[in-house]
Design a protein that fits this description.
The protein is built from five helices and five strands. The protein has helices spanning 12-16, 24-30, 75-96, 133-138, 147-161, and strands at residues 38-41, 45-49, 59-63, 100-104, 121-126. A hairpin with a 3-residue loop joins strand 1 and strand 2.
């Protein structure tokens, strides 16, 4: 069996990096926005690019408070969470012009939650042609834009909307 090589040098930081037990969402709120690709920060919620995206523009929207379940959020927090989701979608529409979206909330590990202790909503842009032979033949997904380039475009678009 021939094994193909896909170079992904950006992943070495994750592989060799110290495994942090702190919540990535809580850490993102404490650090500078551009360090964790925070796109929008509102009073009770925020959105940030997923550094291991399913597709270009994959964003996670999260409440500021470290809560694992929707029912543990106040009405105000839920409304703000969905306001942030709508604002983020508007930015992605402007910058990437996707033809559709996948929207998902994975609650608990059995449902696929990689980070089960801090609720978050996945917003994944989709295009008619975003599936091709690579995932089928090589079990590999190709993301054609760097996180930094996309982040800059989203922040520039956001500044024009503010």
């Amino acid at each position: 069996m021939k094994i193909d090589t896909l170079w992904a040098p950006w992943r070495i930081r994750y592989i060799q990096g110290k495994k942090n037990k702190t919540c990535i969402f809580c850490a993102a709120l404490r650090q500078k926005e551009d360090r964790n690709y925070v796109v929008i920060k509102n009073k009770y919620s925020f959105s940030m690019l997923n550094i291991f995206p399913y597709n270009n523009g994959h964003v996670m929207v999260s409440p500021n408070r470290h809560k694992s379940r929707l029912e543990n959020l106040s009405r105000t927090e839920v409304l703000d969470l969905f306001k942030t989701l709508a604002q983020t979608k508007k930015l992605l529409d402007k910058v990437l012009k996707p033809e559709g979206y996948n929207l998902g909330i994975n609650i608990n590990e059995v449902a696929g939650a990689g980070i089960k202790s801090h609720l978050h909503i996945h917003l994944v842009p989709r295009w008619k042609a975003d599936t091709n032979f690579m995932p089928v033949c090589a079990d590999t997904k190709v993301i054609s834009q760097s996180l930094q380039e996309l982040y800059i475009k989203l922040k520039n678009a956001k500044s024009k909307l503010d």
